[in-house]
Automatic annotation (TrEMBL):
Keywords: Ribonucleoprotein, Ribosomal protein, RNA-binding, rRNA-binding. The lineage of its organism: Bacteria, Pseudomonadati, Pseudomonadota, Alphaproteobacteria, Hyphomicrobiales. One of its GO terms (cellular component) is ribosome. Residues 179-192 have a biased composition (Acidic residues). Residues 13-40 form the Ribosomal protein L9 domain. It comes from Neorhizobium turbinariae. NCBIfam families: L9. PROSITE patterns: RIBOSOMAL_L9. This is Large ribosomal subunit protein bL9. Gene3D superfamilies: Ribosomal protein L9, C-terminal domain, Ribosomal protein L9, N-terminal domain. It comes from the Bacteria. Residues 172-192 are annotated as: Disordered. SUPFAM superfamilies: L9 N-domain-like (SSF55658), Ribosomal protein L9 C-domain (SSF55653).
């Protein structure tokens, strides 16, 4: 199906371009979201008549997105979650949780604007991309930790999942003898 784009769509085209897309993509995404019109003569004339209005609205949305991006620039959001000793979360951090954390800081972001292919399942510092507008993207940092104190330690660069953080041992000083006693097997052999 051929459609006329009403706004820039990543990997597809710019506003005003007529592009050929699969029928399902047009029917299920582009047309219901108001991102495109079917490419027929009536819609082409309608688009040309409304072009200046659409461009002005697009610039306004882009400006608003850039203001939000400036507010988010360089921010780190702390998320406290329950996790095991190895850093594995008992649950996960999904796009919905990220939206709630941003809303608590006063940023109104939609769940579909969070680019998170897989939920976050371990503590640590994670980069998450937000698509605020088709032309405005920003990356924020999530500090997922078991407590606010651990979040502060992680922010300073300390690892909470390494052997020394878990057991209080210097990882470089570990030797196999520390974990394995070669004489222990001999004791069992003598008893038999």
């Amino acid at each position: 199906m051929e459609v006329i784009l009403l706004e820039r769509v990543p990997k597809l085209g710019q506003m005003g371009e007529t592009v050929k897309v699969r029928d399902g993509f047009a029917r299920n995404f582009l047309l219901p979201q108001g991102k495109a019109l079917r490419a027929n003569e009536a819609n082409k004339k309608r688009f040309e008549n409304e072009r200046s209005t659409l461009e002005a609205r697009n610039l306004e949305r882009k400006g608003e997105a850039q203001k939000v991006a400036e507010g988010l620039d360089g921010k780190t959001f702390v998320m406290v979650r329950a996790a095991g000793e190895t850093g594995q979360l008992y649950g996960s951090v999904a796009a919905r949780d990220i939206v709630e954390a941003l809303a608590a800081e006063g940023f109104n972001i939609g769940r579909n604007q969070v680019d998170l292919n897989h939920p976050i399942k371990e503590i640590g510092l994670h980069k998450v991309t937000l698509h605020l507008h088709s032309e405005v993207e920003i990356t924020v940092e999530l500090n997922v930790a078991r407590s606010p104190e651990e979040a502060e330690r992680q922010a300073k660069g300390e690892s909470l999942t390494s052997v020394d953080a878990i057991y209080g041992v210097d990882e470089d000083a570990l030797r196999p003898e520390d974990f394995f006693d070669p004489d222990a097997d001999r004791e069992f052999e003598d008893e038999e």
